[in-house]
């Protein structure tokens, strides 16, 4: 029963839904449920590889903190995303920290189980490569926007990307559970700049701001601001 529930939740994601049925079955058969309490660390930079994760519920924060205490927030991973594949390819330690923003339910397929599966079915490496290449493509897009786009366009682009699950989901969300502080960190903008841009967009009727959330009221105008 639990595998069927997991499958239904994960099938809303592009990557998992496009996998061969046998690979879907193998991942779920080898998966173990991993609950996390708010703020609980999943892994930290330098930890040994621990396999692949899928988010069933909640949000996982991926980033790093410098010795001076400055934080870099790279991603907020939500359902039905999978993550952790880099260490599967190179066998190297984790590159960043990952912790739960609130209560989370994850699936974990261990490194050993994945390598055994891929030894038996080497053709499945391509599916894992597609998962990683999608994220690499997004990273290049974000770097380009950071260098070339003005701050309002970057905010608009990131909100649209989050609403569409970074390409993982077909149906965009109107309400994003995203505190302004986290959006600012994702974009490497000051909180003051981000707050002012969001207030301007709210004044234009494009967004509605709430406590810890942002509602997209006019996606077409937001897309125009993003340059789309």
TrEMBL record:
The HTH crp-type domain, residue ranges: 149-220
Keywords: DNA-binding, Transcription, Transcription regulation
Domain Cyclic nucleotide-binding positions: 15-118
Domain of life: Bacteria
GO CC annotations on file: cytosol
A GO molecular-function descriptor: DNA-binding transcription factor activity
SUPFAM superfamilies per UniProt: cAMP-binding domain-like, Winged helix' DNA-binding domain
Pfam families associated with the record: cNMP_binding, HTH_Crp_2
Protein name, as recorded: Transcriptional regulator, Crp/Fnr family
């Amino acid at each position: 029963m639990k595998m069927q529930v997991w499958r239904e939740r994960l099938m809303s994601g592009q990557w998992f839904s496009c996998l061969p049925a046998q690979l879907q079955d193998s991942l779920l058969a080898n998966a173990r449920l991993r609950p996390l309490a708010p703020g609980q660390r999943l892994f930290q930079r330098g930890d040994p590889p621990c396999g692949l994760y899928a988010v069933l519920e909640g949000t996982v924060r991926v980033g790093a903190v410098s010795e001076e205490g400055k934080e870099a927030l790279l991603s907020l991973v939500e359902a039905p995303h999978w993550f952790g594949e880099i260490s599967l390819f190179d066998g190297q330690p984790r590159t960043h920290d990952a912790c739960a923003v609130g209560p989370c339910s994850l699936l974990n397929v261990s490194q050993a189980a994945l390598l055994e599966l891929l030894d038996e079915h080497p053709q499945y490496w391509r599916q894992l490569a597609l998962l990683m290449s999608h994220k690499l493509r997004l990273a290049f897009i974000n770097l380009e926007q950071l260098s070339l786009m003005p701050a309002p366009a970057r905010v608009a682009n990131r909100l649209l990307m989050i609403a569409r699950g970074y390409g993982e989901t077909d149906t965009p969300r109107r309400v994003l559970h995203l505190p302004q502080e986290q959006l600012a960190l994702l974009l490497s903008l000051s909180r003051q700049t981000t707050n002012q841009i969001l207030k301007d967009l709210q004044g234009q009727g494009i967004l509605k701001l709430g406590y810890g959330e942002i509602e997209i009221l006019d996606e077409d105008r937001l897309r125009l601001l993003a340059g789309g």
